[in-house]
Amino acid sequence: MKARLPHVLTSLVSILALSCLATSIEHTTDEFTFSCVPLTTQLSDPIVSPGGISEHVHVVAGGTAFQRTMGVDTARNAKETTCGVAIDKSNYWIPQLYNQLQNGSFQLVEYQSSAIYYLNRACEYGVDVTSCDALEYPLAPPEGLRMVAGDPDLRSYNDSDLAQKAISHMCIEYDGSSNETKHFPRQPCQTVRSQVFMPSCWDGKNLDSADHKSHMAYPAVGDYNKGVCPESHPVAIYSIFLEFFFNTAPIGSRQSLVYSMGDATGYGLHGDFIHGWTDQAALQQAMDTCTGPKGLDDPDCSVTRTQKRALTPLSQPLDAGEPKDELGQSGPLDGLPGDNPVMWSDEAK
Fold first, then answer.
1. How confident is the model at residue 180 (pLDDT cuts 50, 70, 90)?
2. What distance in Å separates the CA atoms of residue 20 and residue 116, rounded to the nearest whole number?
3. Which of 11, 238, 290, 313 is most solvent-facing, going by the fewest CB within 10 Å?
4. Model-level pTM?
5. Domain ranges for the chain
6. Where does 186-307 show beta strands of DSSP type E?
């Protein structure tokens, strides 16, 4: 089973070579996943606010090269990563979660860990194509790709918008049960899991765009998390799904959650990705070699077969150091960093 080369890229010899590296083996899950521990919490966003202070706080996982200015090669030149797969120096980030206390101050909610999924869910555009062939894999995310999913300014929800459907929250309750909503959970949770499904369809040309979204799209036939890509974005890539876990147990029954941009609804959740995989050929082979019963532990798994350390993610220092901003690490803040006012909507209450 091979990654089918998208028609628009048939002239790109380098990607052709990668496509031909896929090996034919039996697989069962069509996905591989790994864990990450926190890297840093910063007023930084090298995609949206390159070189400067971002408008709100983010929690970040992945490669230790994360900083406010990141060039095309910065991520994959990282010394280390806080994710379990050593050759993935990519960065993944979302807004920091706070809890607004009764006196109006804001308490930092602990970001515990992340789970990162790479999935076979989308397929390339074709005239009259209405479903995907499970035996053909999409392209691995191309080197240098960066993208943003979600809208930090949203305070309402439209179920017909695939980009909004791709954002969700899971309340993991004290009895182990869970409940998924688009808005913040309305009941006390032991853990809140913030979830972002990144777009899986690429225009085949641009590794970024002015709004950091237009070069990517969700499927035109199917749903936000599976289906056939649109003609405007014909190239299917691996789907990337982010799960960020926040420890809300210490808050107890008085949970008044708000994201760092002042969003008290949860609808403004968004996620960012900068490609930092150091072996593109191994990444292209991964859907063929790392999705069997043993997953990343398979001795033939392309992204881990040369890895000397365990898949357990480890805390790592940043290569370039960390900005010295008070973001709530020392106790509750009178206001959100960046002076972001809190906004609600009636439908999320």
1. very high
2. 26
3. 11
4. 0.91
5. 7-286
6. 191-197, 201-202, 216-217, 221-223, 226-228, 235-236, 239-247, 257-259, 270-274
